[in-house]
Amino acid sequence: MMPGLYVFAAVGIVAGALGFAGGWQTQGWRLGEQIEAIKSQQAEAVATATREARAQESARFTNVQEAQHAATKRAQTARLDADRARTELDRLRDQLATTRGGVPGESAAACAQRADAGADVLGQCAAAYLDLAAIADRHASDARTLIEAWPK
User: Quick one: three-class SS letters along the chain?
Assistant: First the structure.
C-alpha cells in the first residue's frame, strides 16, 4: 500500500508543479501582452507629441518670417516717405529762393534777408521733423514686428 501512495503523491506533486508552471507561463504571456500594449501606446504618444511640436514650431517660424517680411515692407515704405519729404523740402527751398528776387514795395536786401531767415527756419524744422519721423517709424515698425511675431 505504501508504494501506491508515493506514486500518487509524486504524480500530485508533478501535476501541481506543471499546473503552477503553466499558470506562471500564461500569466507571463498575459503580462507581456500588456507591457507591449503600454509600450505601443507610449510610442504612439511620443510620435504624436513630436508631430505636434514640429507643426507648432513650423507655424511659429512661418509667423516670424511673415512678420519680418511685413517689417521689411514697412521699412521700404518709410524710406519712400522720407524721400518724398526730402523732395518736398527741396521744392520749398527752391520756392523760398525765388522770393529772394523781390516782393513789391520791399528792398532787395529786405527780401533776401527774409528769404534767408525763412530758409534757415525751414531747414532746421525739416531736419528735426525728418529725424523724428525716421525714429518714430523705426520704433513703430519694431513694436509691430514683435507683436506679430509673438507666439499666439
Answer: CHHHHHHHHHHHHHHHHHHHHHHHHHHHHHHHHHHHHHHHHHHHHHHHHHHHHHHHHHHHHHHHHHHHHHHHHHHHHHHHHHHHHHHHHHHHHHHHHHHHHCCCCCCHHHHHHHHHHHHHHHHHHHHHHHHHHHHHHHHHHHHHHHHHHCCC
